[in-house]
Design goal:
Layout lengths: L5 H10 L17 H19 L2 H25 L4 H24 L3 H27 L2
Helix pairs in contact: 2-3, 2-5, 3-4, 4-5
């Protein structure tokens, strides 16, 4: 079983498998700009049902996606954290900032903004991870 995608984090906690999540956090995600744009677009597509407008989905992902892809791995690794720490920190950061922005910019009630951002990010993280690992990896 491969343990290098989002679903593996759940499997680790559920079954105790996937020791790879304790491997060192990636220092450089080694992703080209074209590939990044593709993943950014896929993330926006997956989160569209929750955020409902093109403006919201793009702005919210511009706030978080580049940081999750490039900044969080380097920061986590420099602090001595592993892959699991990186995933946890990044996946708490993204919905928290997106919920805050939904609340402050678009005046969505705070509790509703939290649930919308959490649902959008969990869906894109889980489904996106599965798509990348099942269909896009050689």
């Amino acid at each position: 079983m491969s343990c290098d995608h989002s679903y593996s984090v759940f499997l680790y906690f559920w079954q105790g498998d996937c020791a790879e999540i304790f491997a060192r956090a990636p220092l450089n995600p080694e992703i080209g700009f074209a590939a990044y744009l593709f993943f950014f677009a896929m993330t926006c597509l997956f989160e569209w049902p929750w955020y409902r407008t093109p403006g919201r989905v793009v702005v919210l992902n511009l706030l978080t996606h580049p940081l999750v892809v490039w900044a969080w791995p380097a920061l986590t690794r420099s602090l001595g954290g592993g892959y699991g720490s990186y995933v946890l920190a990044a996946e708490v950061f993204a919905p928290a900032l997106e919920a805050w922005a939904l609340h402050r910019i678009w005046r969505v009630p705070a509790r509703r903004a939290f649930w919308i951002a959490l649902g959008a990010n969990l869906f894109s993280w889980l489904v996106g991870g599965e798509i990348v690992n099942r269909w896009l990896r050689a």
